[in-house]
């Protein structure tokens, strides 16, 4: 990882760290997407689950309630601390999904809800999840695609012409990466309503999604 990459990842970690204490108050969409993802995974054999991008550990606790051993992994130390306070896992790992400090074939389920969009190398991150998952296991992830927060993006452009919304991968790009795996890709749009732009901004900031391109 280059110095620039390291600084970029540290900035993301700090943004989520600042949001860690109050994160759950704003994470309705994240909970809904994760619950949907767990439904799609269903009951699987195997005891070991990686919660990659665990946040405050909400889904780690869900997996534990199903009798699984959970490894909680996050880029933010503050998020991991919240997860640990809630006893959301068997162990806690401070690391980047793009470079997992885990042995190959050690997990039965690799679960990642609303985290892969923060990876610079989506294909590399998916390859890492594949590497640590045992043959016969499952990788389940939910991410965001191009067009997310399009209304907020348009509003900022009208104000000062700037781009302040992260440019997510297109669905076609994600499908293309997944062609190398036995993958099923679903696109399930979600619409959220806010009374005004400030409420939307509070929600975005409340979950730590405050990435801004260099120079803005």
From TrEMBL:
Q: Which Gene3D superfamilies match?
A: Vaccinia Virus protein VP39
Q: Ion transport: is it a keyword of this entry?
A: no
Gene Ontology molecular function, alphabetical: S-adenosylmethionine-dependent methyltransferase activity
What are the alphabetically sorted keywords of the record?
Methyltransferase, Transferase
- InterPro entries under this entry? Methyltransf_11, SAM-dependent_MTases_sf
Ranges where the Methyltransferase type domain occurs: 50-141
Indicate yes or no for the key word Transcription regulation.
Answer: no
In the record, biological process GO terms are: methylation
Which is one Pfam family of this protein? Answer: Methyltransf_11
| Top-level taxon | Bacteria
Tell me which PANTHER family the record gives: METHYLTRANSFERASE (PTHR43591), OS06G0646000 PROTEIN (PTHR43591:SF99)
* Protein name (record): Methyltransferase type 11
- The source organism is Musicola paradisiaca (strain Ech703)
């Amino acid at each position: 990882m280059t110095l620039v990459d390291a600084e970029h990842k540290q900035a993301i970690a700090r943004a989520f760290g600042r949001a860690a204490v109050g994160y759950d108050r704003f994470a309705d969409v994240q909970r809904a997407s994760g619950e949907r993802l767990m439904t799609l995974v269903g009951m699987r054999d195997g005891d070991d689950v990686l919660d990659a991008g665990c946040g405050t550990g909400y889904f780690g606790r869900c997996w534990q309630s199903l009798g699984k051993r959970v490894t909680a992994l996050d880029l933010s130390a503050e998020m991991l601390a919240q997860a640990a306070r809630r006893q959301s896992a068997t162990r806690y790992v401070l690391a980047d999904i793009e470079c997992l400090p885990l042995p190959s074939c050690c997990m039965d389920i690799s679960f990642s809800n609303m985290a892969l969009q923060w990876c610079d190398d989506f294909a590399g991150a998916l390859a890492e999840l594949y590497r640590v998952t045992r043959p016969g296991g499952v990788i389940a992830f939910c991410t965001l695609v191009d067009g997310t927060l399009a209304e907020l993006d348009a509003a900022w452009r009208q104000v000062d012409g700037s781009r302040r919304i992260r440019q997510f991968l297109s669905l076609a790009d994600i499908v293309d990466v997944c062609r190398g795996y036995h993958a099923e890709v679903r696109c399930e749009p979600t619409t959220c309503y806010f009374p005004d732009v400030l409420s939307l901004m509070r929600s975005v900031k409340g979950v730590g999604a405050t990435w801004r391109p260099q120079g803005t």
